[in-house]
UniProtKB/TrEMBL annotation:
ATP binds at Q181, K197, E218, A301, A302, M303, L304, E375, D390. Belongs to the FAM20 family. This is Extracellular serine/threonine protein kinase FAM20C-like. It holds the Pfam family Fam20C. It comes from the Eukaryota. Mn(2+) binds at E218, D390. InterPro entries: FAM20, FAM20_C. Keywords: ATP-binding, Disulfide bond, Glycoprotein, Golgi apparatus, Manganese, Membrane, Metal-binding, Nucleotide-binding, Transmembrane, Transmembrane helix. The active site is at D370. It comes from Nothobranchius furzeri (Turquoise killifish).
Amino acid sequence: MVRRSRGQSTRSIYLGLACISLSLHLLLAIFCFSVLQSACVLPTVHDQKWNGSISEATEEAKKLLGVEKLMKKEKGRSKLEELFQHPLYNLPRPELQEDDWLLRLKTDAEAEDSVGEDEDEENSITNDSEDKETHPPWLQFQLGISRWELYDRNNPNLAQLTHYLATNRILGAVQKTGGTQLKLLLSFPNYGQALLKPMRQSRDAETDVNLFYFSDFERHNAEIAAFHLDRLLGFNRIPPVVGRLVNITTEIRDITADRKLSRTFFTSPAGNTCFYGQCEYYCSTENPVCGRPHVLEVSLAAMLPDLTLAPRRSWRSPWRRSYSRTKLAQWEKDPAYCDTVKQTPPYNSGTRLVDLVDMAVLDFLMSNMDRHHYETFEKFGNETFLLHLDNGRAFGRHSQDEPSILAPLTQCCRIRRSTLLRLRLLSLPEFRLSDVVRESLDLDPLGAVAPLLSEPHLSALDRRLAAVLRAVQTCQEKHTDVIYDDLKKHGDHWPD
Ligand SMILES: Nc1ncnc2c1ncn2[C@@H]1O[C@H](COP(=O)(O)OP(=O)(O)OP(=O)(O)O)[C@@H](O)[C@H]1O
Ligand SMILES: [Mn+2]
């Protein structure tokens, strides 16, 4: 009797489990067919007849929870997509006049006139729309640079550009001069180029506390993450950067025409291909860049137009750190330092001061202490955005914040309203900065190798964002003119 009822209850457990397994199957199948559409292989465990234990069933359920999360994300409940749909990320773009574009295309007539003249390729590009669509992605990117931003986030060319850099055959690799650390200039078919920074230390290695920030290795993942963060802040002031796995033997050593570079290649005792190049810092046998055994993670940044076509001006940051081991910079000693800056051109008019504050917010969030200079396009004079180039020393430390990076904000107590409102948005649970950064970085090809920013770095972003908002709050308690209202022209419905 007892045995029979036990038999019955075992059967009903089996039946229950079979039902669970069946419905889980069904869910997964719906997910595969409706969401992924592309190849989706069911895990083999689902193909077997269920005969597992309760704990296995729980494991299955857990796995499915993960799947459900993914389903929500795939169905458009992505925080990233929702963020980019918010009005603050879709402000009407100012109508651009001809001189608001960095590069001007020749009209067909002008191009015809110049036939026979000895002009280089780029100068004979025409305005013809058909022509424009057939331009390679790197050229479309350069043609899209305007007075106010490097790119339009919604332009489909951006994805084409990163795909182009991440997948095209590397035709050439030479060392890039300028700056202090090793970097290469790669060339691709159709005359495209990219600035390569190699992975030099494990992603999670925190900067040694006894190392000056200017001594730290540059990080390839910092270059990639900085591009994503800048875009998420709505700035669009960093050239697109994408990660890639490169075979340094076949894709660099074997094809480079740079003799100085190729002479520094060697095989390490572990059998890995390594090189060190020639530069000021860390270009020595003691600091080699090595593949495993050939493969290396790198960051590739889209190139700005050549300086002969679009000259840039380099500005020393008023809040530049002292690059001395013993001296402090003026801004570190004088609490009223900003009063002087505010009276000094170009910071005494236009948006330059709030542009510096934007840059300081970006740098504080990613803990970049190395912003000694910034650049602008000469063509646009002082009425233009600031280029946030060179972010290789960001994301060096997650366990500590560096409040001094925020000095332009805390000393000047000025910030753009649009920046502040976006920062507030990113501090809400539905758009949480760490979540949208994680999601955005997952789109990079190297995201599949390992997360580009570890969880401690992501939570540091949320912690630092809260610190920025507190700093603004403190300013507002003491001053009345903290907000630079750049949204007035877009209506009066914005919160204070
Ligand atoms: N995407 C780009 N397109 C064109 N030029 C670039 C790009 N990124 C950087 N540069 C130029 O190359 C120079 C060197 O790059 P970068 O600053 O990243 O090197 P670095 O070795 O980190 O320099 P530093 O040691 O001064 O920090 C920059 O000053 C900038 O003018
Ligand atoms: Mn640098």
